[in-house]
Amino acid sequence: MSGKFITLEGGEGAGKSTQALRLAERLRGQGITVVTTREPGGSEGAEAVRALFVDGAPDRWSVAAEACLINAARADHVERLIRPALERGDWVICDRFVDSTLAYQGAGKGLADSALRSLHHIAAADLWPDLTVLLDLPFAEGLERARSRGGAGRFEAHDTGFHGRVRAGFLQIAADEPARCRIVDSTGDADAVEAAVWAAVELLCQSHAPHDDGYRAPPETPAGRGMHVDTGDD
């Protein structure tokens, strides 16, 4: 595949949706065809699953059910939107992907990292991003941002311990996979964050080269390390 796959990750209120749109405009200014999408969602079937996943009480689903739901949505999303776009040579920017699953359902809720990676292997045929930008900020600040916009949902309603584990999970992923992941401080204003995101992505533009195939495998991580699931917007 000749396209590039970029994901934006982070906890609630980190600004992923805003920065995805800004990054897309920057790349289009470089003459690159860009597809923006999100998880859960991005395809008709995945959006139908999203409605089940993000709405309702925090305990609506068990963690195993969450993992199965998000991977069902991802399978449809990858098959119908992401992989075809990459094969056309388009660049894809996705608001959340597998790292959210590893962070939310894994680190946050205790499912084994190995089990979640096995599900990802089935759902996405081991499609991994070329670059993941982690928008990081204290979880309390992120939750306040999300709630101030009226964006509170199932995951915002989880307790603070959960959100602390999710943030730690994201940071651990970035530490384990420095070749793929870049951490951006998202406590600043949107313009400053945009500049930092672009600094990370600009290097990918300079090294742009076609892929030989669709397999992108991450480095090995410690066996059994817990990581987790997706939450939705920002």
Automatic annotation (TrEMBL):
Q: Which reaction does it catalyse?
A: dTMP + ATP = dTDP + ADP
Query: What Gene Ontology molecular-function terms does this entry list?
Result: ATP binding; dTMP kinase activity
Pfam families attached to this UniProt entry: Thymidylate_kin
The protein's matches in Gene3D superfamilies, at most eight in alphabetical order, are given as:
P-loop containing nucleotide triphosphate hydrolases
Kindly provide the name given to this protein in its UniProt entry. Answer: Thymidylate kinase
Name the job this protein performs. Answer: Phosphorylation of dTMP to form dTDP in both de novo and salvage pathways of dTTP synthesis.
Task: Cite the EC number.
Answer: 2.7.4.9
Q: Which source organism does the UniProt entry give?
A: Glacieibacterium frigidum
Question: GO cellular component terms?
Answer: cytosol
Checking InterPro entries in the record gives: P-loop_NTPase (IPR027417), Thymidylate_kin-like_dom (IPR039430), Thymidylate_kin_CS (IPR018095), Thymidylate_kinase (IPR018094)
Biological-process GO terms, alphabetical: dTDP biosynthetic process; dTTP biosynthetic process; dUDP biosynthetic process
